[in-house]
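Per your request, structure below.
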């Protein structure tokens, strides 16, 4: 790497601009190369890029979590439920602080 410590401010600014242009050009070339590789892979598989992308998004959608049935229900408001997982809801904490037992809220 050349020694640039002896360059003037103007020369350094010019060098900076040239470097930024070269960086942008290399990034564009890398993207173009990647696109060409993706096209070749798709062609070898007999698919389009859109089909490959669609396959990838459909794979991710299949990993949805199953919902867990609630195990506890509020006596005051039946819409307030808790699965027993994670942090206890406020309504349950308030009832437990009043002296209620957790088992009394089991469904």
């Amino acid at each position: 790497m050349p020694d640039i410590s002896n360059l003037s401010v103007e020369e350094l600014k010019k060098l900076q601009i040239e470097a930024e242009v070269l960086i942008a050009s290399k990034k564009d070339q890398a993207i173009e190369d990647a696109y060409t590789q993706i096209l070749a892979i798709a062609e070898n598989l007999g698919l389009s890029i859109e089909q490959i992308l669609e396959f990838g998004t459909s794979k991710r959608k299949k990993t949805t979590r199953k919902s867990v049935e609630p195990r506890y229900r509020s006596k005051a408001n039946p819409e307030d439920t808790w699965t027993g997982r994670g942090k206890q809801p406020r309504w349950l904490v308030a009832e437990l602080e009043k002296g209620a037992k957790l088992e009394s809220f089991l469904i």
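Residues 72-105 form one domain.

Regards,
D.
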